[in-house]
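WARN retry 2 of 3 for item q-0093 after timeout on previous attempt; input resubmitted unchanged.
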Amino acid sequence: MPIPPEPQHPSYAKVFLTFARNSLVRDMMFRANFLIEAVSSLSWAVMNVGFYWIIFEHANSIGAQTGWEKYEFFVFMGTTWIINSIVQAFFMPNSEEFSELIRTGGLDFAMLKPIDTQFLISLRKVAWSSLANLVLGIVIVAISLAQLASRAEDPWQFQPAMLVLYPLYIACGVAILYSLMICLAATSVWLGRNQTLYDFWFYITNFSRYPMEIYARGWGLPLLVVFTFVIPVLVVVNVPARLLAEPLSPRASWEWPLAGFTLLATLGCLCFSRWVFRTALLSYRSASS
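OK item q-0093 returned
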């Protein structure tokens, strides 16, 4: 009797590439809508640049003695767009639809697939138009670094370690935001519908859009502690942008410990979000039951 072949395990890279290609084909079927979404996203980002450009006409830095002067802050802003655009392109559209999968019973079919359910839920769609801000963020960072490198006093200098550390901490920031997002999406299993996902997302991640030094006084101190060590969204942009722009010279004594904490926070967030998602699936009851 011939021995039946062993079941083939899916290649996650190939599956993701298939998802990405299908999403691109779908977007190209509605090119006008794709262009409108991309232009709208870029327009909002450009208006933000103009807004902060006006602010720097009246102030030298974001916060006294923080080091976040004009072009250092634009490195920070560009890093924010890079991270947020990746999250919004690959994870946001899928997380927003999770409650709809529960309502319609689509989650039943996802759980029957021979592939990890969280992977399938998280990456089955790609919003390609959201990557427009990724390109703009890279351009803003490049222009800002060129300005910092050409200044007469204390010019910025390239260090080879940045080629590793900056992408590493960009990935850490994406992972932390993804972990927060999948936790919010998983609550749909218990709540039935979670239509306020984007609202929660905006409220919490809004704290990550500014240098953490602005929270270091008065009523901002509790926010600094909570959103650094409990819900670590403040490290998402601050650490990679700080490593690249070097706003403080010499570096503050707490910068490298904060970078080390970010690695631990990333691992902790991924593990916690995985536990929340799997616990939610254990509580899930089929739409047909």
